[in-house]
């Protein structure tokens, strides 16, 4: 995992308390159907939580921002500056897509942004969808297990509080329980650099896992540009399908690798840079 040069300030120790039912670690997470997640972004490595539930059981996160909040105004100014850089990246990305018009017969057109309304993306009522430890469309991320547990016990508002198992989790969780499984550790900070290295250096598991968590975050936080960029038929979705096919090996893997050779490394890296920029702008670092 990418290390950070600046060590976060030490958080006040969280007093551990015994579980009311003797469960901890993996057993606790399985019982409450929530999982700790670690996400490395250009701005740091953050710990958070994720759960999957049926869409019909959840209220989507709010994304309405109080325009009079001075703290939000400061965030908007910072995000506006970041948006200028992202706009340049998006324009370069779109220019590259335009150059590939002669290849459109090999891939579906990008979805129309007009298809996405202000509500959360439509899902089947019985389909499981992701939800993160988030509030008003922002992912709550923590740099230490102690600060995360302290927040979970604080009673502060967040989207996971609506889960029927939340009370049990908040009462039992200890700092030692916050240990994400290897498959729940995502290195989004390495994606763009890996893609720039060229097809022969592409790390298939790294890129596939990045696609999975980016889709989850796009849906859960209602980040429309991310949803669109990774939607079926988009260039990044074609990249993802080819990566998955190549990873399987065998004859299918051979054809998957051939398909990857046809995907422009510059186009892929610019597309992913934009996606990661949108996700980073939606992170609320709490320590």
UniProtKB/TrEMBL annotation:
Biased composition (Acidic residues): 81-93, 108-122
Name recorded for this polypeptide: Uncharacterized protein
Organism: Actinoplanes italicus
Region (Disordered), start-end ranges: 1-29, 56-122
